[in-house]
Design a protein that fits this description.
This protein is mainly alpha-helical and 409 residues long. Helices cover 64% and strands 4% of the residues. Helix 1 packs across helix 5, helix 1 runs antiparallel to helix 15 (365-389) and helix 5 runs antiparallel to helix 6 (155-172). It is globular, with a radius of gyration of 25 Å.
């Protein structure tokens, strides 16, 4: 208990008390736990996104917007998809895979589906792992891999960690973005490539480093800002908002054993101060709310940048050809810089046709958001559950109030 100098603390003021914890596990175990957390959340995100795709009858954007559509080739060889037939289970992911396996055998999975799927999951796991490592480096209490970071990290720390994680993801995913933009199902159907492995190898060798990072500026802005807002919103609602709700909900001018407080939540932990254990359903509800809020906040940032990015990516293949004709780095730099200028002029024209920048940049915003929220929220919930599962056991933290404590288990 802190020394209050004999004065009773103000009833509206809550005080975070850090437990006396002795952390003995090394950094190697912490990195292992962070990687396990990131991989588990990535896997759940991808699975949930496919479930969402079933209900919306549209291709899913798995794990924070799939960088490569791993079902593109399976759709291209499916006659029902090519004939634009009405929806049926045969054009869902299981149906598409069943048809592809029937036509090409089981080798279709490791050759055509597994490479982009593994790439997507790896990028997602990298994002979560980088966030955990960055947050631990920025905010010392988060570096111990405990089940609960207490006191919770400030917005500046979570935004910075999310910004860094998004930056790393934009770098790692640059080759995937380059492949996705230039992917042609016609080349696959004509037999130019025997597998996705060969396609990725030959295409990246052909476009080179310049082609891989063409348009990276927009990817960097979208990923860094988007995930900075995403993680900071999630952590704030999950922790600060949750704690503020508890202090307000259980606040009373009377002794907490009176009928004003939920007497069933008051426990005897052997101390001379009554202790309240919040209802078990309150925190999961806030985690779910945090996921919803984070998804919405991320979409507000990333949706307009995606519109700009789509316009710019349409000119990348022509840039690849023009870049091969240039002989100096200065000429190549001017070529790519002029591409951004042309993109801006084209975006300005489209915005004028839609009646303004806001209308154009946020067209189809709500439908896109509805598709993202379920899978994003599920991924964050798994992220939080697994982080606590692999976290170290420590003494429960408490929020001190006037005359009683609120236990954070």
């Amino acid at each position: 208990m802190p020394d209050t100098g004999g004065q009773r603390p103000d009833q509206t003021q809550s005080l975070y008390l850090r437990p006396d914890i002795a952390f003995q596990d090394g950094s190697r175990k912490e990195r292992k736990n962070n990687a396990a957390t990131g991989a588990s959340a990535a896997g759940m995100r991808a699975v949930t996104a496919q479930m969402v795709a079933f209900y919306f009858r549209a291709p899913a954007k798995a794990f924070f917007r799939t960088r490569i559509d791993y079902m593109a080739y399976a759709r291209a060889i499916n006659p029902r998809v090519q004939r634009n037939e009405g929806w049926s289970w045969r054009i869902t992911t299981p149906g598409l895979l069943a048809h592809a396996i029937k036509e090409h055998g089981w080798s279709f999975i490791p050759k055509q589906v597994a490479p982009p799927l593994m790439a997507n999951l790896s990028v997602g796991a990298m994002l979560y792992t980088t966030y955990l490592q960055s947050l631990g480096a920025i905010y010392e209490p988060a570096s111990h891999s405990s089940k609960r970071v207490f006191p919770p990290p400030p917005l500046s720390a979570t935004f910075t960690a999310g910004f860094l994680a998004g930056t790393v993801q934009s770098l790692v995913a640059a080759p995937l973005d380059a492949l996705q933009v230039r992917f042609s199902t016609q080349e696959m159907l004509e037999g130019h490539y025997k597998s996705m492995w060969q396609y990725a190898s030959d295409k990246l060798r052909d476009i080179g480093l310049r082609g891989i990072f063409a348009g990276w500026t927009l990817s960097f802005a979208k990923d860094s800002l988007g995930y900075g807002v995403f993680f900071s919103t999630f952590e704030y609602v999950k922790a600060q908002s949750y704690h503020a709700f508890l202090t307000r909900y259980y606040h009373s001018d009377r002794d907490p054993r009176s009928g004003i407080l939920r007497s069933s939540q008051v426990i005897d932990d052997g101390t001379d101060r009554p202790t309240i254990r919040p209802h078990y359903a309150v925190e999961p509800a806030f985690i779910l709310l945090a996921g919803l809020a984070a998804s919405l906040a991320q979409q507000v940032v990333q949706h307009p940048l995606t519109e700009l990015q789509n316009v710019h990516f349409e000119r990348l293949e022509s840039l690849d050809y023009q870049a091969k004709l240039q002989h100096t780095r200065v000429d190549i730099f001017r070529l790519y810089f002029s591409a951004y200028e042309k993109t801006f002029r084209q975006c300005k024209l489209q915005a004028r046709q839609y009646g303004g920048w806001a209308r154009w940049l946020y067209k189809e915003f709500w439908m896109s958001t509805l598709r993202q929220i379920p899978s994003t929220s599920a991924g964050l919930i798994v992220f939080e559950v697994v982080r606590r599962k692999y976290g170290m056991e420590v003494d429960a933290a408490r929020i001190e109030k006037d005359g009683y404590d609120i236990l954070l288990t």
